[in-house]
């Protein structure tokens, strides 16, 4: 883990073999609001300890009520949504929280239960297949990325509805500022894109063509990673996009259940967005 923080490591680092007492874990909750269970608490601590080897953990004031450790599980009625609680709808590939300059450097996923072997999807920057002009355009601030639906008020508790941070999310959705979808050195750029929430700047046909090319190449290069019970994956949110294949939910207490965490290499770079608590950020 310590070496991985310094290396130009692959799209994801997977730590296998962590024991999970399935009986003590209990049933998969019906909603993330009830997912802070006694049986899952030690595993949340384990994920936090691993994450601390890579950087600083944080959460979002507008996502799952500001929890730092969040839960990924199917919710009845949300099968076809564009958030992680979907199931029958494939969760499209994305950079986690691509809309924000304070997005995570790594996303940690701890599999508590995955009886059907539902796959996480991954892909990196398809540099070998990008023509020079597409690369040039992708490195320019000619693209709009809006917040994904997990940050909407409707997907948080009623008690959270008055938070000022939701106004920032609404502004980012209505008036996103142009950004580049590739950043850094052109020989090893970082990726910032969301397949469902990215678009070219209005009227920019060249940017539309570049985004279309990148979409096709990422679609063609997606591969699968199945996280079995006890597996922990740390996805490099700068070098890879991730998503999830569609599956049939059970709703019988045995559904797929993951703990998720965001990690930044430098928490102080987000000082402007601290929502009172330094580990909880808010788009303002």
UniProtKB/TrEMBL annotation:
Keyword Oxidoreductase appears in the UniProt entry: yes
Pfam families, sorted: TauD
Gene3D superfamilies: Clavaminate synthase-like (3.60.130.10)
Source organism superkingdom: Bacteria
Domain TauD/TfdA-like: 83-261
Residues annotated to bind Fe cation: 94, 96, 242
Binding site for 2-oxoglutarate: 120, 256, 260
Keyword entries, A-Z: Iron, Metal-binding, Oxidoreductase
UniProt-listed InterPro entries: Alpha-KG_dependent_hydroxylase (IPR053447), Arginine_beta-hydroxylase (IPR023966), Clavaminate_syn-like (IPR014503), TauD-like_sf (IPR042098), TauD/TfdA-like (IPR003819)
Family assignment from sequence similarity: Belongs to the clavaminate synthase family.
Protein name: Putative clavaminate synthase-like oxygenase
Origin organism lineage: Bacteria, Bacillati, Actinomycetota, Actinomycetes, Kitasatosporales
Gene (UniProt): svoX
């Amino acid at each position: 883990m310590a070496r991985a923080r310094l290396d130009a490591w692959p799209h994801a680092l997977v730590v296998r073999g962590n024991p999970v007492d399935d009986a003590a874990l209990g049933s998969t909750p019906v909603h993330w609001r009830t997912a802070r269970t006694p049986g899952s608490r030690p595993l949340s601590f384990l994920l936090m300890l691993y994450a601390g080897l890579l950087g600083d953990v944080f959460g979002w004031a507008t996502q799952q009520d500001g929890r730092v450790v969040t839960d990924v599980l199917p919710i009845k009625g949300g099968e076809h949504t564009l958030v992680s609680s979907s199931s029958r709808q494939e969760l499209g590939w994305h950079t986690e929280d691509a809309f924000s300059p304070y997005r995570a450097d790594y996303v940690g996923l701890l599999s508590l239960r995955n009886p059907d072997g539902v796959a996480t999807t991954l892909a990196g920057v398809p540099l070998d297949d990008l023509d020079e002009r597409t690369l040039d355009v992708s490195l320019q601030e000619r693209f709009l990325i809006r917040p994904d639906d997990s940050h909407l008020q409707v997907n948080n508790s009623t008690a959270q509805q008055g938070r000022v941070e939701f106004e920032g999310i609404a502004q980012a959705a209505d008036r996103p500022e142009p950004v580049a979808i590739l950043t850094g050195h052109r020989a090893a750029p970082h990726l910032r894109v969301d397949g469902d929430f990215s678009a070219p700047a209005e009227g920019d046909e060249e940017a539309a063509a570049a985004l279309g090319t990148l979409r096709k190449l990422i679609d063609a290069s997606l591969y699968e990673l199945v996280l079995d019970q006890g597996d922990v994956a740390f996805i490099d949110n700068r070098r890879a996009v991730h998503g999830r294949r569609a599956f049939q939910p059970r709703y019988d207490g045995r559904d797929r259940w993951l703990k998720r965490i965001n990690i930044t290499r430098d928490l102080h770079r987000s000082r402007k967005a601290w929502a009172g608590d330094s580990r909880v950020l808010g788009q303002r």
